[in-house]
Amino acid sequence: MDISALQNVTADYIKNVGGKVNQSAGQDQGFQSVLQSVMDMVNEANDLQNQSEEATMRFALGYATNTHDLKAIQEKADIALNYTITVRDKMLEAYKEIMNMQI
Fold it and tell me: Contact at 8 Å (CB) between 45 and 83?
């Protein structure tokens, strides 16, 4: 199985976010930084979804004929969306737990 077309499907984004967290370990890690990293992730997932839709339209119109590249783009967008949804669910779960705490 040739996986050379899947070069762009890496965990570089996760490593970059982890590096940012490690760099700011000495600094105050407030909710602002967490929210900003989540918003960056949402924007990246949105960009990947737009690229997937564009590739699908090009394929449907006959401008692209390589189904392997199309599937790779779609899978990358799907993985990013699923990861974003998981992070959202975990954040909501943490928020609900904080709200249920007794003061």
Answer: yes
